[in-house]
Amino acid sequence: FALAPIALSAGGGYVLLNHGVIAPFQDVAERQRDQIAPAQNLRLLIWDILIPVDEYLQDSDPVHPDTYRNIRGQVEVAFSELISALDGTPQARGLVERARDNWTVADQHATELLSVVGLPGDRHVIETQQRFHGSVVTTTDLLAATYTQISQAIMDDHDMANRSYERSMWLAGIAGGLSLLSIAFGVVMIGRVLSQSVDRLVDGAIRFADGDRLHRINVSVPPELHRVAVEFNLMIGRIQASEEALAELALQDSLTGLANRRA
């Protein structure tokens, strides 16, 4: 009985820790690995893709288109993986899909710019470059909004985990207090029962000493005192039977068996 609050708190604490602490922290770790880090890496890749395009417009080095194509392949894979990782968060996934649409536009502008040869000051080239930069900025802004939204979800999970942990600590403290009270109550009750049982034994002994042969001691708990009371009652019964037999003998003459006149 005294351990019941502890057992209940253990069960309740397990539920709280498993669903309110461990699960949110696992969710935080998974979001950090599958969503936060890929979103940040994708933003950096898209910023990096400006470099080969702008440098190509300055020096027309054929190395820059190869660099761009290499980064573009990484960007497309990163977009695909991030969108898959955001299946359970439609709002964040919508932002990433919009970012990918803007990236597609930026890629079209970049492809056009990388096909230009020897026209660095051409007005159309400058306007296309500006549109390319604008699409890249819009793409990174949408990814930044995605990062902010995922970060807020992580903070919410973290706060929920902290609250659940605090509740589990309160539950453990309350259960410990209740267990101590239960133990104290049990000790008091056991002491009272033992005291009452001992009082009955003492009262029975006093009555027996005063000549009461009809009284029987009734003690049920604890078992040890119950056995003492049973033996005491048996002893009283045997003594009573012996006294009755002696009394009958005192009423008869020992030689003739006739009633004793003095009786």
Note down, in words, how this protein is organized.
One of its GO terms (cellular component) is membrane. By secondary structure, this protein is an all-alpha fold. The chain is built from 6 helices and no strands. It has helices at 4-48, 50-59, 63-85, 90-113, 123-209, 223-250.
In short:
By secondary structure, the protein is mainly alpha-helical. 83% of the residues lie in helices and 0% in strands. It folds into 2 domains: 4-176, Four Helix Bundle (Hemerythrin (Met), subunit A), CATH 1.20.120.1730; 184-250, no CATH class.
Low-confidence stretches: none
Oligomer: single chain
Would you report the number of β strands? 0
Here the CATH topology of the largest domain equals Four Helix Bundle (Hemerythrin (Met), subunit A)
Write down the domain tally: 2
Figure out the total of helices: 6
CATH class of the largest domain: Mainly Alpha
CATH architecture classification of the largest domain: Up-down Bundle
Q: What gyration radius follows from the Cα positions, in whole Å?
A: 47 Å
Q: In this structure, how is the largest beta sheet organized? A: none
Structural shape: rod-shaped
End-to-end span in angstroms?
Answer: 63 Å
As a percent range, the share of helical residues equals over 70%
Keywords:
263 residues, 2 domains, rod-shaped, Four Helix Bundle (Hemerythrin (Met), subunit A)
Q: Which secondary structure elements does this structure contain, and how are they paired or packed?
A:
Layout: H1 4-48, H2 50-59, H3 63-85, H4 90-113, H5 123-209, H6 223-250
